[in-house]
Specification:
- By secondary structure, this protein is an all-alpha fold.
- The chain is built from four helices and no strands.
- It is elongated, with a radius of gyration of 50 Å.
Length: 183
């Protein structure tokens, strides 16, 4: 309360925490009361039994009425405890919804900033330039491959010629070797 007087405002999360703490405190107090009433009920049962043994029926009736009232209070307290639990869960759901809304808002801001930073005509121009240069590069690559293939074909022809020459030389030597071996 003093924060309000001095101008400090609580964030929604801080307010939520405070409310949840207050609810949890109230639930603990209710549970303590239920425990106390249950203990009193046990005592009343023993007193009713003792009074019944003594034959004091009027005292038994009064204590029985008190026990019925205590049971009603216990039932009411448990109902209140359940309602407080439901309220606490509802607050948690509200907090989650708030967090999701903030996340969506931030994501929207980020997307808006990215969209503002995009230069669509510039991107299109860059992509068109890339496509054109890629085509030029493909053409050059094909030309290089053709040139290499032609150069390799020449080497193949040279290789064939050299093999023919070697074969002739070997044939001549073979003939000479055959002639020298034959004699």
């Amino acid at each position: 309360m003093l924060e309000f007087l001095f101008g400090k405002q609580l964030t929604p999360k801080e307010r939520m925490r405070r409310q949840q703490r207050a609810l949890q405190t109230a639930q603990r107090q209710l549970r303590r009361e239920v425990t106390k009433i249950e203990q009193e009920e046990k005592k009343l049962i023993k007193e009713i039994q003792a009074s019944a043994k003594k034959g004091e029926t009027d005292a038994c009736k009064v204590m029985a009425k008190s026990m019925v009232r205590n049971r009603r209070f216990i039932k009411k307290f448990r109902t209140m405890d359940t309602n407080l639990t439901a309220l606490n869960l509802r607050l948690a759901r509200l907090s989650t919804n708030h967090d999701m809304a903030v996340a969506v808002r931030d994501a929207t801001k980020a997307m808006r900033a990215m969209n503002a930073g995009m230069n669509l005509p510039g991107i299109q121009k860059v992509l068109m330039d890339f496509e054109r240069e890629s085509g030029v590069m493909d053409m050059k690559e094909e030309m290089m491959e053709e040139t290499m293939d032609e150069a390799m074909d020449d080497e193949d022809e040279e290789e064939e010629e050299s093999e023919e020459i070697v074969a002739k030389v070997l044939d001549e030597i073979g003939i000479q070797l055959n002639q020298t071996l034959g004699s």
